[in-house]
Design goal:
Blueprint lengths: L5 H12 L4 H23 L8 E5 L5 E3 H15 L4 E6 L6 E2 L9 E9 L10 E9 L23 E7 L3 E6 L4 E7 L4 E6 L10 E3 L10 H12 L10 E2 L5 H11 L2 E4 L12 E2 H14 L3 E3 L16 E2 L1 E4 L1 H13 L2
Parallel strand pairs: 3-5, 11-12, 11-13
Antiparallel strand pairs: 1-2, 3-4, 5-6, 6-7, 7-8, 8-9, 9-10, 13-17, 14-16, 15-17
Helix pairs in contact: 2-3, 4-7
Bound molecules: 2,5-anhydro-1,6-di-O-phosphono-D-mannitol and magnesium ion.
The site of magnesium ion has 4 residues, from strand 5.
C-alpha cells in the first residue's frame, strides 16, 4: 500500500482544493512536529523524569504537571521562529505570547491546550494536545496583537486538531475540508494518513459524562441521562453504554471513531461558571472537528462555534458528538426554559 504522509496530504490540499496557503501548511507541519516531541516525552514517562507535579499553578489555579509546562514550552519554541504567526495563547499561560521581535511575524494566531487530560499523566492513560488556528484581524496589521484579537467565534477557525498520545500517537485534523487522521510511524518519525473523510454516526448508544457529578446537574441533563440509563424498556427503547476517560481528547477520539455523545455540562458546584472546559482551547477546536465530521456541538442552548468569546480563558458547557443525540439534549434545554 502506498503511504501518504502529512506533508503530501497538505501539499495536495494546497494544490487541488486551494484549501490552504503555504503559511498554514507550514503552521500545521510545525505544530505536528512539536506534537511528535511531546509524544516522545510522554512515552518515556518516569524514565524521562517527566512525571509528577511542579510547585506552580496555572492561571486557572490548577497545579501544573511537569508535562503541562514542558509541552507548553515545546509548542512555544517550535512556533516562534517560522514567520507564520502573529501571536499564541495557551491554557497554561495567563496572557498571550507575542512573537519576539527578532523573528518575522505572520497573519495567524495559534491557541492550544498543550497537554489535555493532565490528571491522566501519572497513571499512564491517554492524553493529548488540542490546537486551534485563527486569522489575526485585518485591523491588527501594523500594531501589536492584543488579547481582544483572539476573541473570535469558533466559526472563524482556519484549522483545528488534536494529537492523542495513546497506544498509538495520532493526529486528527481539519482544515475545513472534512476530518482526516494520521498515525505516527515512530521508526520513521512521520505522520501517515490512516483515515480520510471521517464521519460520526448520527445515532449512538454510548454516552460520556462524569457521572459522579449527577447530583449537581441541571434538570435537562439529568432527564437525558436518566432516559439512557432506563435502557430498552424505557423511553429510548435501547440500552446505552457509558465511557468516561477524563481526557477530552481520548473521549472525543472515541466518538469520532465510532460515534457517541460527550458532555461536560454546567453544574451547580460552581454556579457562576458556565462549565469546566475552556471555549478557546478545548470546546472550539473539538466542535469544529465534530461538525466537520457530520456531528453537532452545543453548550446545551446554542451552537458552540457561534459563541462570541469575551475572555481568553472563558469556560463553557459542552455537549458534542452524534448529531441526533446532541440535538435531543439541546431540545431538552430549550423545553426547560
Ligand atoms: P485539563 O485541561 O486541566 O486536563 O482539564 C480538562 C479535562 C478534560 O480533558 C476532561 O474531559 C475533563 O477535564 C475531566 O474532568 P473531571 O476530572 O472533572 O472528570
Ligand atoms: Mg484541557
Amino acid at each position: 500500500m502506498k503511504r501518504k504522509t502529512l506533508t503530501q496530504y497538505l501539499v495536495e490540499q494546497q494544490r487541488a482544493a486551494h484549501a490552504l496557503s503555504a503559511e498554514v501548511r507550514l503552521l500545521v507541519e510545525i505544530v505536528s512536529r512539536a506534537c511528535k516531541t511531546i509524544s516522545h516525552a510522554v512515552s518515556k514517562g518516569a524514565l524521562g523524569g517527566v512525571l509528577g507535579s511542579l510547585e506552580s499553578e496555572n492561571v486557572q489555579g490548577e497545579v501544573q504537571k511537569k508535562l503541562d509546562v514542558m509541552s507548553n514550552e515545546v509548542l512555544l519554541e517550535a512556533n516562534e521562529w517560522g514567520g507564520h504567526l502573529a501571536a499564541m495563547a495557551s491554557e497554561e499561560m495567563e496572557t498571550i505570547h507575542l512573537i519576539p521581535n527578532r523573528y518575522p511575524k505572520g497573519e495567524f494566531l495559534l491557541l492550544f491546550d498543550p497537554l489535555d487530560g493532565s490528571s491522566n499523566i501519572d497513571v499512564n492513560v491517554s492524553i493529548g494536545t488540542i490546537f486551534s488556528v485563527l486569522r489575526a484581524p485585518a485591523s491588527a496589521s501594523g500594531r501589536e496583537i492584543t488579547e481582544e484579537d483572539f476573541l473570535q467565534p469558533g466559526t472563524t477557525q482556519v484549522v483545528a486538531g488534536y494529537a492523542i498520545y495513546g497506544p498509538q500517537t495520532m493526529l486528527v485534523l481539519t482544515i475545513g475540508q472534512g476530518v482526516v487522521a494520521f498515525t505516527l510511524d515512530r521508526e520513521m518519525g512521520s505522520w501517515i494518513l490512516t483515515s480520510e473523510n471521517i464521519r460520526i454516526p448520527e445515532d449512538t448508544k454510548e454516552f460520556s459524562i462524569n457521572m459522579s457529578n449527577m447530583r449537581h446537574w441541571a434538570p435537562p441533563v439529568r432527564k437525558y441521562i436518566d432516559e439512557c440509563l432506563a435502557g430498552k424498556t424505557g423511553e429510548r427503547g435501547k440500552d446505552f453504554n457509558m465511557r468516561w476517560i477524563a481526557s477530552m481528547v481520548a473521549d472525543v477520539h472515541r466518538l469520532i471513531t465510532r460515534g457517541g455523545i460527550f458532555m461536560y455540562p454546567w453544574d451547580s458546584r460552581e454556579p457562576n461558571k458556565p462549565g469546566k472546559l475552556r471555549l478557546m482551547y478545548e470546546a472550539n477546536p473539538m466542535s469544529m472537528l465534530v461538525e466537520q465530521a457530520g456531528g453537532a456541538a452545543t453548550d446545551g442552548n446554542q451552537r458552540i462555534l457561534d459563541i462570541q468569546p469575551t475572555s481568553l480563558h472563558q469556560r463553557v458547557g459542552v455537549v458534542l458528538g452524534s448529531k441526533n443525540e446532541v440535538e435531543r439534549v439541546t431540545r431538552y434545554h430549550h423545553e426547560a426554559k
